[in-house]
Amino acid sequence: MRVRSSLPTVSMSYVHAVCTAMDVPPATIGALLEQAGMAPGLLSQPGARVTERQFAALYRLVVAYADDEMPRLFSRPLRPGALKFTCLSLLDARSLAVALHRWSHVLHLLQDDFELELDATQPISRVALAQVPGGRSCKPVALDLMLKLIHGVASWLVARRIPLIRVDFSFPRPSFAGEYQWLYPGPVRFDQPQTALHLEASYLQMAVRRTKVELNEFLRRAPEDWLFVSFKDELLSQRLRDHLAQQLPQPVTAEAAAVALHVSTRTLHRRLGDEGTSFQRVKDELRRDMAVQKLTRTREPMAAIAAELGFDSTASFHRAFKGWTGDTPGVYRGRARGA
């Protein structure tokens, strides 16, 4: 089976932060990791990577274990079915602004830790999570996942990936901050006064386009369709990543890539810098993620994988992969098969 996907992977540092915040006993998390197709030992290896599908499977398992759609992240659990009935209440809203206003009332009924605030009076609108006076302080992961849920559902409702002017988080910059490049379609800032999304007000006037029939498929795939939304139309780094994936195993220079993407080489480097990355980093992360996909989902020989990813030898592939993850490809594949 050939895997040509350029989908990003998720760092175990991020997975570990999520599992820790969900307060599930280590022994239980180990069992759930195995059920999701991940070796429990990977949780202690920050350099390891897992696929989006594996992370989504783990999230669903923790939801079932905790009987909570935001597992133990808030003072009151969101029982399974909360997201479904929330979305049902939004489907007949005449615009996204009305839908988000309704959602703020639903959240007020469901939990006591924060309020959803919508400011649509300015050209740049703000959707914020404000702590309830006297309420429990929200964990950073709780704010992250709730904000991602709001953005993912909002994008789904209008059937369009909503680009963001910026994303603010009230907590300090975590060690895995690089993961947010793939989770949010806009620059992310930390240590801000309030956790919030900033977007053009015109998006809030867009009509809600989804139906009850479409909602069933959206929920069946949850959390994939709200956590891992594709934003390749907005980010140049994603467009570059997809272009490089199509050209493998042939090497591509920054100059050639700029021509293919219809920008100057200088603009390519500048915009990648604005997105918090670089040409070499995009190239390395693409090959790393494709290697993880192949090692966990296929039985291709190491030499074949190295050749498909554009390495001149198996040895150079081994050195690069160990630099990316801390493990050799063989050890990494062995752990995946063990799981």
Automatic annotation (TrEMBL):
PROSITE patterns: HTH_ARAC_FAMILY_2 (PS01124). SUPFAM superfamilies: Homeodomain-like. This is AraC family transcriptional regulator. Keywords: DNA-binding, Transcription, Transcription regulation. InterPro entries: AraC-type_N, Homeodomain-like_sf, HTH_AraC. Residues 238-335 form the HTH araC/xylS-type domain.
